[in-house]
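hey can u check if this looks right to u? its 345 residues, i copy pasted from the old doc so theres a chance i mangled smth
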Amino acid sequence: MPEREPHQSNPKIAGRPSAVADSEFALLLTHDVDRPYKSIQSAYHAVEHRDLSQLRALRPSVNPWWTFEDIMELEESLDVRSSFYFLRERHLLERSPRDWLSPFYWVEHFGRYSLETPEMLDLLERLNEGGWEVGLHGSYDSYDDRDRLETEKTMLELALGESVTGGRQHHLNRGPETWDHHRDIGLKYDASPGSSETFGFEEYLPFRPFDDEFVVFPLTVMECALPDPGEEYEAAWAECEALLSEAAENDAVMSALWHPRLFNRTDFPGYRRLYRRLIETALEMGAWVGAPADYYAMMDHPAEASEAGDEAEVVDGESADRCRLRPEQAGDNKVKTGLNTEPTG
């Protein structure tokens, strides 16, 4: 099992909203919409599982990774809501020729989708009208490209018909200026700091890197960092249960990420069951459970940014939000220092 790092104190921690003060803790539910369509992965799974029936997913009418109705039904039955972060990844032909030689970019290319299809537009409308949050999943290279990130935000808002509050970077990428870009284009929060290989609390509460309205929600657990519940369900649940207990003991804000395709019980057995049990147990423990945007809306925010908050604090030539993180996080995908092709479920 991955070793948990000790909690680190943060002078810019944001307090809990009065509306959830009576709750034992908070559980934020999020979904990164990376690959809503199963395509060439069908051939891989057919070989891996020696199951030719997997090839049925290659037919246009079959889409086993379109699990949004299942997720919405599950959360509706528990009277909770979550966030769905939508991605606009670049077409391979939009990249430099040297990127064409990288298998990683081919994987990203074959997983990409368009927000402008009738199916996606209908989904966005149903999520929005049903009370779910629709947020931005910044593309792989957008973490240090303000213009690209703003374009992606604009495209998502045009498809949605409303502005978005926040989101998370694809592959959890972040550089020293990523939060500046987020704030500059009008995002109110970021939920990127975390890992797909380890889990645990970096902070017990969200924090404000600029001492203004912009908030960061650290990611506590991504499903793929846990033991595989299809093979070790009880071990996976034991880790989730321990995180819930730690959250309750520290009045924490815990954030969980479950990718939508992992709700397919054939390809990813155990993940849907584990997710439901996580929510049910949190509710039984007296937690507030919901989407980051809903939590953000209940927070008390500074009326306006202070003069000091308009510019990121600089320490030894680097922005303070980067320096405050533990050094080993640079190798754990929490601050991007080089090409990152870490899988994210």
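Residues 189 and 215 are 5 Å apart (CA to CA).
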